Amino acid sequence: MYAIIRAGGKQAKVQSGDVLEIERIKSDDDELTFAPLLVVDDEGQALSDKSTLSKATVTAKVLGESAGEKIDIFKYKNKSGYRRRQGHRQKYTRIEITGIKVPGGSKKAKSKKAEPDTSEEE
What we know:
- There is one protein chain.
- This protein is mainly beta and 122 residues long.
- It has a domain at 2-65 and 93-101.
- 3% of the residues lie in helices and 55% in strands.
- Strands 2-1-5-6 form a four-stranded antiparallel β-sheet, with no helix packed on it. A four-stranded antiparallel β-sheet has the order 3-8-7-4, with no helix packed on it.
- A hairpin with a 5-residue loop joins strand 5 and strand 6.
């Protein structure tokens, strides 16, 4: 089972046990919850109904914080003496996905497929 979550303005495909870095979240809690945008079960069936997804949760454990790679910004205009130097280092929160919970457990709506007609008429 996997889910698509939104964290920090970006979307990520997550499964239970995945470790990923998202944009920094200031929180004293050791556990975070996300509302999934889409859930796909083990059978490959997608759950995208808003009423079902509003009750579903993706839980994650905070592992720590880190800083990304430094980005140098340099602005320059020729023959005018204009030079500006700036740097940026994005902060990240490392999380581990602990579970994906969907209400109703393994109950899934099955679509009715057209079954072939097995009766023979002669």
